[in-house]
Amino acid sequence: MKKFFPIVAFIAVALISLTMAGFAYFATQEAARIKFEATADDALNRIDSRIDLHLSLLRSTHALFEARNGGISRGEFKAFFEALGINDNFTGLRGIGFLRLVRAGDEAAVERAILHDYGASHAIYPATTTLPWRTPITLFEPLDPSNQSSIGYDMFTEPVRREAIERAMADN
Length: 172
Known about the structure:
This protein has 172 residues and is mostly helical. It has helices at 5-67, 74-83, 86-89, 107-118, 159-171, and strands at residues 96-99, 102-103, 133-134, 137-141.
């Protein structure tokens, strides 16, 4: 019996070691799974939070236009934008724009309004004769040099945006 003791001891220690290694492996896998789930949940919560924040921005902007029956000056829009604290509360947001829905052929009145608000002529672009509606951007904040070219841009000329605008029109 004494001659088999070292072999039995070796086998016992090896089995215990393998069992402990297995437990350590499974514990590590479980810890990694739990960490991944926590990270994924955190990311999902941040995305949800960000979407809710942007929806609140859209609702408050809509409420402003509803309260003013759609008539808002550039100065009022700028004051509203600044009061929102966009740089502090909406990091990464390029800006807020307002489109005016205009029948094709009635663009001159909108171009005059843009000239009045901005003191510079902004023709509605790109030119088109095939679409029944025009949706030029008439207000945009912040109006920094990178955003100035957006004034007068007709978003109805882009198929994806046109579809979204048409859906929004159908919902109202």
